[in-house]
Every structure is written in structure tokens, then in C-alpha cells.
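TA notes. Do not distribute before section.
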Amino acid sequence: MRISPTIEDRFKKSPTGDIIGDLFFDLDNNPSTGSNAFEGREVDKYKGYEARVHLPVRVITSGGKSSPFVAYEVYTHEGSFYGINTVDRQDTTSEGVLISHGPDGIEFAVRLDILKLALPATIRVMLAEQF
């Protein structure tokens, strides 16, 4: 995902953290199933999602210096949760590295078993971006 402002710009503006946004996955491509509630209120725009991927920018402090890191948290309609994060800005080829960020955006992979998605599948993905 290309994002603007960048992770570093977001960190400069808000050194305690930020939110890129949320991705909503309608895993059965059926708006009649799943949920349409987000942050305690019903939102028709996201009707039918079974999983939500929250994309926060967090802060790590080491040796008196603070740095941003990216994370994702997967919340399923059934209430299960899975989270992963990285401070690493470069290496997306190492085994187990599922998220990274650089000067123009973020790259991440969500494991299909976490989403409980069997292939082949047709899904809808909706983005709620925060600035």
C-alpha cells in the first residue's frame, strides 16, 4: 500500500503513534452475512465483513530514542485476534516477516489460515483510511 503521509511523516506529526486505517474483508462476498458494526456503531459501508485488519503506527523507545514501527491486528467477526509488527524497514524476504515499511508505504501479508479462508475464493476488501 502506498500511503501519504509516510510512516516517518506520521511519526513526526504524532510521535506517540498514529493509525493508517482499517481493511474490512468480506470473506464470503456476501453482504448479508458477517458484521456491519465498527467501533460500536453500525456502518452500512462495511456491511458483511468477517475480518478487520487494523493498521496502527506505534512507537518503540530504545536508548532514549523513539522510532516508529508498523503493525497489523486481525480481528474476526467471531472475536478471535492475531497481531504482528515490525521495526524492520528493509527486509521483507526473511521467513516470518509479514510486514515492513519504507519511504513510500507499507507491505504486508495476512496468512489465509488466520482469516480462515480456503482457496479458491472471491472476497470483497474495503478500506477505511485515517489521515
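Switch to the second chain here.
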Amino acid sequence: MILFVVFAATVSYVIGRATGYGFSYTLIVLPLAILSSIGSYFYSDKVVLATSGAKQIQKNDLPEVFRIVENLSLGDGVPMPKVYIIDDPSPNAFATGRSPKHASIAVTTGLLERLNKPELEGVIAHELSHVKNYDTRLMAITAVLVGFIALLFCCSTSQRYFFHSLRWRLAAFF
């Protein structure tokens, strides 16, 4: 996370120098980079689940799916993740969360309709491997990094005027 903030500050400094905003651009971007990194660490899983329309299930909602996740978690030695269902006809599944203790696994209704039990176990075991190897944290950080840097490069003309006027205001303080 610290490397992300350093990288964002460096890129914002380069952009600020190239566009004539100087160090003031970095002063604006640095707090945003810190907030983004903290937010991505603690809330990226919730954002992904909310944007995908995932609904958390309990054992009595879909006992077979819940039991598969529970048994594979025990067998793999990872804490039981929260289980989510997405009402979507396309077959898909994903894992999210910052650590195995804070993990979630989501499967679509299309996947549940198309796969038999051994196939579903294979897909869920694959997703649990992402949880166990902390791949979900790496992908969340990578997505935030790419998205944040893309936003830095996509300033519209009105934003350029805003940053230009802000630069002069900040210069008065320093």
C-alpha cells in the first residue's frame, strides 16, 4: 500500500510538472492516493459484491452450495468465507476479500444451473485457492492502482482550470 502511495505521488508529480501545475498537483493527489489505498484495503470486497448484485446466503438458503464451500474450506485449512449468489444466467464465480479471515466467494445462478456437484466443487476449490494465496488482495490493490493512475491521466479541461487556479491558491500558503 505504501508503494502505491509513493507511485501515485511520483506519477502525479511528473504530470504536474508536465502540465505546469508543479507540486500543487501532488498535494492534491497524495491525500486521495492515501484514502484510495486505505479504502481499497478495507472495502474493495464490499464494492465488488455490491456492484455485481451479490446476495449473501446462509446454510438454509442453498444447503448444497453452502456445504460444498464449508467442506472445501475445512479440507484446505482456510476459514469459512461468506457465500454469495448472483442472479445472472452466465456461468461465473469469483473470490474477494483482503485475507482468508475476510473472504467471500460468489457464484452465479447460471453456474449453479449448468454444473453438477463435482464440477461445482472444482470451481469453488479454485476460488478458495485464490483466497488461500492472497490473490484477492493483490487483485484489489492492482485494480485500484490502475484505476487511480487512469484517473490522473484523464483530467478534462475544466479540471485543468480547477487545478490551475488551485495551484495559485496553494502557492499563497507556501
